[in-house]
Structures are given as structure tokens and as C-alpha cells.
Design a protein that fits this description.
By secondary structure, this protein is mostly helical. The protein has a single domain (about 10-190, about 200-415), classed as MFS general substrate transporter like domains (Growth Hormone, Chain: A), CATH 1.20.1250.20. Helices cover about 75% and strands about 0% of the residues. It has 21 helices and no strands. The protein has helices at about 10-40, 45-65, 70, 75-100, 105-130, 140-165, 170-185, 205-210, 210-220, 225-250, 255-270, 275-285, 285-295, 300-305, 310-345, 345-365, 365-375, 380-395, 395-400, 405, 410-415. The chain starts with 9 loop residues before the first helix and ends in a 16-residue tail after the last helix. Residues about 420-430 have low confidence and may be disordered.
């Protein structure tokens, strides 16, 4: 029987390492595609923003149409399939580059497919965590998961920058595909419980199940405002992500290696925040931790405006500190929001709820990227960064205005309660 006392039981170790490899691959993709487009295909800032738009649309379509499968099959098998398909796509991109057939359109399609598959993978991953660790260990488990993601930022940014600088996009895309294959192998060794027998699949019940996760989320008076705040935050975060690499390359005259090294600095700082994330959620009530981590990244957005040509060391430090503050706030935030979701929602519904949550919070990504793509046609990238930063700082308003979120106790108190769904009113909302 699986150990329900220790966090680092055999199944959690395998899951953690599989996530480390999968996330590393995802970050390689996110870092590499815009730079390949800019340096090898001579893309414009608008082209790069449209690549980010496609990535968001892929997430939106895949989660919107395929989310019921996260609760219908063994989650480990589902995750293996998602990793295998991502490896196949990245391998195909490498072949097209070798054949001199790579184009902006191909990168747009690849970004959409990989992002969509990653969204489904992450939904199943979040739902699998409560099955391999005890609920009292969920904050610690989510801290370690967020930590490996920060560490992935370190390795992925530096690795992608060096591979592009020293070798070629082919080496990078093949390395990316290899991480997905290795992740799938590790997942195959995790013992996953057979899901409850689902009703026979038909067009009618499948369509009905598409909205069930969103219905659960919408009626939950705690998770709904939290997820709306995340969506607000992500809308403007995506706008920043769509232009900051272009801003660094062209306004700051930074090289891919310098941007990658700055990303490594940011990842180290984000990783260091892992040592305080659990303590923050153990000592602070959710309202304080959430409000701070939603608003504080605005400082990072402003820091990117200080990049200037001819100052490579200063630029690396400024961008690294900005990305580090951003990564730290996001990591601390994810530790708590994922734990809240896993504590408040029964495991049998967690896959659908996670998919609905990502549909809302990641579904705004194409809107943010499209907003940036439109703005850079008439404004410099610095002005777009300033507008997006103003949007980020206002994302905390939704949770501050929620009485239910303000009344939440600390996570340690919530975790000590029996493992059952919270009381609901007649509409299914948390009382």
C-alpha cells in the first residue's frame, strides 16, 4: 500500500521526476520557438505575438473539447499519450528545419498543438497528485512541483540559449522531444488507481460532460474568484510574454545566450523561493498571500523597461531580477491555489475541474497575446509592457472583493479537516 505519511514515497518521486522532464521540454519549446522565428525566419514582433496567440488558442481548444478524458481513463496512460504526441510534433519540426521547409505557419501550428497537449497533460497531472500523497502533504507537494518548474526555467532557458548559439534549432527541437519521451517512460512506472467506471460514451453525455467541470468551478464561491484573478493576471502576463523577448533582443540588443542566462538567474531566484513558499502558506491566511503574489509581479514588468543597448551585464542582471521576482510570486501563488483546489474538490471530479480551471485561466492567453500583437503595430514594445504591467497589478481585486476568500483559514487548518467536499448551497456553491 502506498505510504500516506511521507511525502517522498516511491510514486511521488516518479511523478515529480516525470514532471521535471515534461516541464523542461515545455520550457525549451516556449523559449525556442520565438527566437527561431526571429533569428532564422526573420519574423516581426507581430509574428512572434501571433505565435503566442496560437499557443493560447491551442490550450483553449484542447481543454474545451477534450477535458472529459482527464477523468475517464487512467491518468498515467493519458499523460503518456500527451507526452508521446508532443515528442512527435517537435521531432517533425526538426525534420522540417533540416529539409528547409520550416515556416512561420509551421511554428504557429506547432505552438498551438504542443500548448494544447500540455494543457491536457497538466490537468491530469494536477488530478493525480492527491492520489500519490496524503492531503496534509499537498501544500508541500505543490511547493516541490512549483520548485522543479522554477528549476526547469533555469535549465531550459540556459540550454535553449546555448543550443541555439552553438548548434542549431535541430539540436534544440530533438532535445525537447527527448525530454517528453523520458517523461513518458517514468510515468509508465507510476501505479495509478483505476478510475470509477464511467457511463458509456455517447455524443449526448460527452457534450454534457464538457461543461461539468466549468459548472463545478463556477458554483464554488472560493475557487471561482481565485480563478478569475488568475485569468486576469494571465491575460496581461501573456501580453508581456509576447513582447518581452522581442524587447530584449531589439531594444536591449541582448543575444539569445544573454536572455537565456537572465532566465537562469530568474529560475534560481524562483527556486530559492521554494524554501519560503510553504512557510508563507502555513503562516498567512490565503487572502494575504494571494493578494501579494498577484500584485507584486508588476514591479518585474516595470524592470524590463530599463533594458538599454550597450549594457549587456546590466541588462542580464535587470532581466534576471525581473524574471526572478515574477517566478517567485507565481511559484508561491501556485503552491496555494493548487492546494486549495485539491483540498476542496473530490478526486473523482478533480480532472474535469482542473481542465475547466485551465480553460478559464489559460484560455485568456490568446486574447492577451493578440492584444500585444495589435498594440505593437502602433506602439513601441516598451509602451506595450507598461500597459500590460498596469493590468497585472489590478488582478488582485477579485479576491479582495470576495468575502469567502477573505474568511479562509490557513491551509494547515483546512488540511486538518476530514477529506470531503465542503458544504454547498442549493446551487452547489461553497458555504
Amino acid at each position: 500500500m502506498m505510504d500516506t505519511v511521507k511525502l517522498w514515497n516511491r510514486e511521488f518521486k516518479r511523478l515529480w521526476w516525470s514532471e521535471a522532464l515534461s516541464f523542461f521540454g515545455s520550457q525549451l519549446t516556449l523559449f525556442a520557438i520565438p527566437i527561431v522565428a526571429l533569428q532564422y525566419l526573420r519574423a516581426s514582433a507581430a509574428d512572434v505575438a501571433w505565435i503566442n496567440t496560437a499557443a493560447g488558442l491551442g490550450t483553449l481548444l484542447f481543454l474545451g473539447l477534450l477535458s472529459p478524458w482527464t477523468d475517464r481513463a487512467r491518468r498515467t496512460r493519458f499523460m503518456m499519450l500527451m507526452s508521446g504526441l508532443r515528442a512527435l510534433i517537435l521531432g517533425s519540426v526538426a525534420i522540417l528545419f533540416l529539409a528547409d521547409r520550416l515556416s512561420i505557419i509551421v511554428l504557429i501550428v506547432a505552438a498551438g498543438l504542443v500548448s494544447g497537449l500540455t494543457g491536457l497533460y497538466d490537468s491530469a497531472f494536477a488530478a493525480l497528485i492527491p492520489g500519490v500523497t496524503h492531503r496534509t502533504k499537498l501544500p508541500a507537494a505543490n511547493t516541490w512541483v512549483a520548485g522543479i518548474r522554477s528549476a526547469g526555467d533555469i535549465g531550459a532557458g540556459a540550454t535553449a540559449g546555448l543550443l541555439l548559439q552553438v548548434l542549431s534549432p535541430v539540436a534544440l527541437f530533438l532535445a525537447d522531444a527527448a525530454t517528453y519521451v523520458a517523461s513518458a517512460v517514468l510515468i509508465s512506472r507510476i501505479r495509478d488507481r483505476e478510475p470509477p467506471r464511467a457511463e458509456r460514451l455517447s455524443a449526448k453525455n460527452y457534450i454534457r460532460s464538457l461543461g461539468s467541470g466549468f459548472s463545478i468551478l463556477r458554483r464554488n464561491r472560493i475557487l471561482w474568484p481565485v480563478n478569475v484573478s488568475i485569468a486576469h493576471f494571465n491575460l496581461f502576463t501573456t501580453a508581456i510574454q509576447a513582447v518581452y523577448v522581442t524587447h530584449a533582443l531589439r531594444t536591449g540588443s541582448m543575444s539569445p545566450a544573454e536572455i537565456g542566462f537572465a532566465g537562469a538567474i530568474g529560475g534560481v531566484l524562483g527556486l530559492l523561493s521554494m524554501s519560503v513558499a510553504y512557510r508563507i502558506w502555513d503562516r498567512l491566511r490565503p487572502i494575504g498571500a494571494l493578494a501579494t503574489t498577484f500584485a507584486l509581479p508588476a514591479i518585474a514588468g516595470l524592470g524590463m523597461l530599463l533594458l538599454a543597448p550597450g549594457e549587456p551585464i546590466v541588462n542580464v542582471v535587470i532581466l534576471g531580477l525581473s524574471l526572478g521576482l515574477w517566478a517567485s510570486c507565481v511559484m508561491i501563488n501556485i503552491t496555494g491555489t493548487e492546494s486549495l483546489k485539491q483540498m476542496l474538490i473530490p478526486e473523482s471530479r478533480l480532472g474535469r475541474l482542473s481542465a475547466a480551471s485551465r480553460l478559464l485561466t489559460w484560455g485568456v492567453d490568446p486574447v492577451g497575446a493578440a492584444l500585444a500583437a495589435s498594440l505593437v503595430l502602433v506602439l513601441p514594445t516598451g509602451a506595450v509592457l507598461a500597459i500590460a504591467t498596469a493590468g497585472v497589478v489590478s488582478s488582485a481585486v477579485w479576491i479582495v472583493c470576495s468575502a469567502e476568500v477573505r474568511r479562509l483559514p490557513r491551509l494547515s487548518e483546512l488540511a486538518s479537516k476530514p477529506s470531503q467536499p465542503p458544504p454547498v448551497d442549493r446551487r452547489g456553491g461553497v458555504r
